Amino acid sequence: MSAAEYDVFLSHAWADGEFPQQIADALTKAGLRVWFDATEIGDFGSITRAVTEGLARSKAFVAYYSKTYPLRRACQWELTSAFLAAQTEGDPRRRVLVLNPENGADHIHPIELRDAKFRKAPTTDGEMQRLVQAAAKHVRELSAPLADIHPLTAPNWHGMNPVGSTHFVGRLKEMWELHSLLHAGDVAQITGAAAATGGIGQLQGLGGVGKSLLAEEYALHFGAAYPGGVFWLRAYGNDDSKAAFGPQERDTLRADQMLRMAEWLGIDTQNLTAEQIEGALTRKIGSEGKPCLWVVDDVPNGLNGDALRRWFAPHSLARTLITTRSREYGSLARGIDLSMLTPDEAYLLLTSRCAPVGQDKEVRLLAEDLGRHALALDATASALLSYSGDEPYRKFREELSSRDDDALELSAELADALPNGHEKSIAQTMLRSIRNLGEEGLDFLRLASVMAVAPISASLVASVLMEVDGLNRDEAEQRQRLAFHDVTKTSLAEVAGEKRDARTVHTLVSRAVRFHEKASLQRTQALREAAVKSLRFGIAPMADEQRLHKHIEFDVAHARQLASIPASVSEANLVHWVGRYDFERRAYASARALIERELQFRRNHQGPEHPDTLVSMHVLAATLRAQGELSGARKLLEEVLPVFCRVQGPEHLDTRKAMSNLAETLRCQGDLAGARMLQEKILEIHRRVLGPEHPYTFNSMLILAETLRDQGDLAGADNLKEEAYANRRRAPGPIPRIRC
Questions:
Q1: Separation of alpha carbons 452 and 564, rounded Å
Q2: Lowest mean per-residue pLDDT among 85-99, 467-481, 578-592, 701-715
């Protein structure tokens, strides 16, 4: 048990002025060691530093709980960390104390703290002395610091790296309600939430109200409750007109992310199927024995019960939190309907960038005009920075009230996703922000409007600009940096949680861009076509190497969005490599569906004997064989092999691959004689064309030797192996894998 360096950690909002400082001085004068930060704590890194430096080494936590306090992210992060630590020894009020300078107590969360000791903040010298005496007496009864009760360390995150959005405000009540939903059996007493929920909860609500941000903030605030880690999955459920993922594609996206989770936990996933990977992940979470949080962000409409449950955490130690615009999953997960921000929260977000000097009334009226909708308020706060003069809020309100036919049309299009009665103002706000962008920012949003709702990397944007405008790399990267700066500054895109060199664009912004850009469809289409080519060149070198898949996960999501049903040769090429990616991942159903679509396109548009058509047939045959459909695979291979020989020649690599796969298919069917005949032919070609010491020749000899052994020709098999290894010793080196 370590000694505490501080008796009291005094948590306060910087905006509360000198009163917290006076309390800190009085406690210090009485001989107590007080941790007190007199400066504003803003970003996530500073919050972490503050807790590391003081909270974990203090005996007691004292919150100066003004009405401003719950609106400050740093304050609530500190409070939650201390509360969770103290809760492990019983009554958290023994360690967490509240000073309330307000007349009421409705602003204090969790409600368990509303009857905590030292409820009223001192207003006179006598009250201050009584507070100091009581605090000193109470602290003397405590021994260990909070860190000895429960380590105040942040959990590991898998699936994203949290950055802590500076655009998030409030939602304190909802966070504690959410915690109670996920922990109904052990913390229901905090908020009075009833009934067990099985560790599953959901955040539901309109587009743009901040569901994903709240999920991230909850995981940050309550991280100490999840020492097993935070797992973040994306369900790509935006129920937007451009959503194209079917059940197979979406399930493959889920399997991709499960694989990534398993790899992060150190599980050897080599040669495991998706089901085996999920089983290994379940066992790993169980063996660790630590509670963890499983977040599934952006669940789509229309999933049946089984499809939704597949996204849930694989082990009971993990609490599942889903975010969704749908309200159809109430029977599977109790939810919190996330509505508009409160008036105070809306005021804080709207004034976060532009000081409202003497304009409080106009600020609050503008917030109401925007329905206190989080995304609209955020975009407006950014737009106000460009206003000159003394009354930017009034001017903005006047402009919102002017007639805008485009805003009226867009508001009708977005009516299903926006608060009733405020569609026009919100639509006009987004249109204004889009119109004020430079060409670089507009190009990025045009690109995002046809992509999946997933992080878009800087490298992909630069590659697209190089392709579409013939730029060199330096020019393209400069335009990409300008684009990222502009869209981030205007709150039309967010820094991606996975890595900071990527941006995500909300589906409402994408829809507004498509509406605004009707006159620029040609440019959008050009960017789309460039993205198809860029994605193909980015995915192709890594598709056949599962160990590299983590580098292209989001690119593959975008590729599925752009070209799941190919309409051009470029799209067919992209579909081909996504199919290869799925094949390598053993997602054979999805791979088969993609390759079948590719093959249909190529037969119709490139002809039955085009080399690309033949390769597509060959890959489809390999997929059928992997699924166990040997007769179907054999039929395709017997059809394509003679054409390969005629068009490409018997010595071409594609011909040799097809011959090898047909031989393996025959072998799996038990036709050893047929397999041997083809394998001997392949070996003869490799010896003649590549030489006896080439790795392909070595592989061919070993494969043929196995067939000889299966036929009972043990001497022939042993002689062939001895010859193969003798050749290999003369030419050592890596043996390349022969792929379909």
A1: 12
A2: 85-99
203 pairs with which residues across the strands? 323, 336
- Domain locations in the chain as residue ranges: 6-149, 157-258+265-337, 343-435, 565-648, 671-740
Q: Which fold has domain 565-648?
A: 1.25.40
Nearest residue to 82 via CA among 30, 11, 169: 11
Contact (CB, 8 A) for 648 and 655? yes
Indicate the pLDDT class of residue 388, thresholds 50, 70 and 90: confident
CA angle 377, 487, 540 (to 5 degrees): 130
DSSP state of 646: H
Of 71 and 455, which is predicted with more confidence?
A: 455
DSSP annotation of 101 reads -
**Residue 712: Cβ-neighbour burial (10 angstroms; 0-12, 13-18, 19+):** exposed
Q: Which amino acid is at 296?
A: V
Query: 601 Cβ partners below 8 Å, 6+ apart?
Result: 566, 567, 571, 572
Distance of CA 342 to the CA centre of its chain: 27
Do the two domains 157-258+265-337 and 565-648 of this chain adopt the same fold? no
Give the confidence band of 629 by pLDDT, cuts at 50, 70, 90.
very high
In whole angstroms, give the CA distance from residue 16 to residue 10.
13
User: Which has the minimum average pLDDT: 57-71, 100-114, 556-570?
Assistant: 100-114
Q: What is the mean pLDDT of residues 635-650?
A: 93
Calculate mean pLDDT across residues 530-552: 93
Residue 274 identity: A
What amino acid occupies position 607?
G
Identify whether the C-beta of residue 527 lies closer than 8 Å to the C-beta of residue 469: no
The string of DSSP codes covering 168-197 is ----HHHHHHHHHHHTHHHHHHHHT--S--
Length of the chain: 740
Query: If you average pLDDT over residues 390-414, what whole number do you get?
Result: 85
Distance CA 523, CA 519 (A): 9
Contact 731, 693 (CB under 8 A): yes
On the question of pLDDT at 74 being above 80, the answer is no
CA 651 to chain centre: 46
Residue 200 identity: I
- Residue 145 burial (CB < 10 Å; 0-12/13-18/19+)? buried
Section 600-612 average pLDDT: 95
Write down the pTM of the prediction. Answer: 0.81
Q: How far, in Å, are 89, 92, 153, 706 from residue 82 at the CA level?
A: 12, 9, 11, 65
- The answer to whether 704 and 720 have CB atoms below 8 angstroms apart is yes
Superfamily per CATH, domain 6-149: Toll/interleukin-1 receptor homology (TIR) domain (3.40.50.10140)
C-alpha span between 697 and 683 (Å, rounded): 6
Average pLDDT over residues 126-155: 82
pLDDT band, very low/low/confident/very high, at 117 (cuts 50, 70, 90)? low
At residue 739, the pLDDT reads: 58
Alpha helices in 229-300 (DSSP H): 247-264, 274-288
CATH topology classification for 157-258+265-337 = Rossmann fold (3.40.50)
Phi and psi torsions of 332, nearest 5°:
-105, -20
Type of residue numbered 134: A
Q: Is the peptide bond before 695 cis (omega within 30 degrees of 0)?
A: no
| One-letter identity of residue 383 | A
- CA 616, 618, 621, 623 dihedral sign is negative
CB 602 within 8 A of CB 616: yes
